[in-house]
Amino acid sequence: MKKSLRLKNFISALALFVIVALSSNFYGQAITVQNTSSPTACDGSAMLDSTVAASNINWYVNGMVQSGSYFLGGLCPGTYMVTFNDNTGAPISLTFVIQGGAPNPCSGFTVTCGSTNVSAALACDGSATVTATGGSAPYAYQWSNGSVMWNLGNLCVGSYSCTVVDANGCTGTSTANVSFTLPQDSVLIFNNNSFPGMVVIDSLQTVYLINCTLDYDAVDSAYISSYTNTSASTVLVNWTIIDTNGVVMIVYPITYNITNPLVGGAFSATLIVYCGSKSTNHNTLHINDVILYYLEGIDETAQETYSVVNPINDFLSINFNKTGDYNIVLTDLRGAVIVNTHVNQVSQFSLNTADLKSGSYLLTVNGRTKHLIK
Questions:
Q1: Residues 273 and 354 reside in one and the same domain
Q2: Does a structural domain hold residue 104?
């Protein structure tokens, strides 16, 4: 009788072992793993097949147990175990391995540019270098001026970008800015805005000019007097400098490149005129102003709704392109309002300017501004 009972228990235990063993072997393909992106990353994951009817799911991770989900993420490289009960109630135990992926050869690859400024505004004795770190030699260099060396010499004022590619194909880009430092104790600064209220979307390059014959102390105002497009991506800007008697001292025609000719709006521009050999009184003019660029071209007259005779005398006559309502504002360059009026259904309007002093003024009609000289 005892032998029969022992045999029965042995057969039951053996049957359960066989069922568990077969179940574990059957479910061995029921788990999908995602290895980490690198040996040090912890972005691996494991997931039970959704067709498996599992209950009491427990994931064993570094001495901790996470329960209840078919999916487990945030795993580092290593060996893990999951247990659950299948649809028959049999306990299943599976082990799986999360392997560390190959390291990213571009991780930590950086490119840095350095520069040495020019000794004078029009000198071309600046330099630039580029350094690549964290990559694998050999490196290939490509500068914006066409050079394929790691260093550049004899550079003028400007920006120079360099793209570096290492042996693994990793790419990085940096920019070196070569500039000129102006003396700060003798600078006359003129900040103009021909289009108040317009948001400036970009800047044109700063232009430096040397002029040692200009009487800097006699300058009263300086601004952009006109501008026209010379090609699809360039604009000719006329910078006008006026003395204290309201007389034009000099006009500088400067051609600027529009960096993004597909975008229209307000662009700021800067002209710096200086004399490096002049050590007393003022020796530098720093002039800022704004132009409007339109997709159909940069033509100040094409956007205007009125015209005037400039320079003005005792009367300022304004001729409108069509009869309409207009708001007219006349100010000096310091922003003081001289005239602020609104006219209705007119095609021409005159202002008495006999009492105005000689000098420069801004006339704004319906938001469009002109520089006037008396």
A1: no
A2: no
- Decide: 226 and 138 in contact? Cβ < 8 Å: no
Residue 294: per-residue pLDDT: 53
Radius of gyration of the chain (CA): 38
Contact criterion met (CB below 8 Å) for 275 and 212: yes
pTM: predicted TM-score of the whole model, two decimal places:
0.39
- pLDDT (tens digit per residue) in 128-185: 999 999 989 999 999 988 899 999 999 988 888 899 999 989 999 998 988 877 655 4
The rounded distance, in Å, linking the Cα atoms of 356 and 372 is 12
Q: Which amino acid is at 153?
A: G
**Within its chain, how far is the Cα of 108 from the centroid?**
22
98, 124, 152: which is the final residue of a domain?
98
Residue 294 sits in the same domain as residue 313: no
The residues pairing with 61 across neighbouring beta strands, listed in sequence order, are 64
Indicate which CATH number applies to the domain containing 16.
2.60.40
Please tell me whether residues 284 and 191 are part of one structural domain: yes
Contact assessment for residue 162 and residue 137, using Cβ atoms and an 8 Å cutoff:
no
Which residues of the chain register pLDDT less than 70?
A: 1-28, 121, 182-187, 193-201, 232, 259-265, 278-281, 293-304, 333-335, 366-369, 371
Range of the domain at 124: 110-178
Predicted pLDDT at 238: 87
For 316, half-sphere exposure in the C-beta direction (CA atoms, 13 angstrom radius) is 26
- If asked whether residues 289 and 202 sit together in one domain, one would say yes
Do 216 and 242 meet the contact criterion of CB atoms below 8 Å apart?
no
Task: With residue 22 as reference, give the H or E element that holds it.
Answer: helix 2-26
CB 359 within 8 A of CB 242: yes
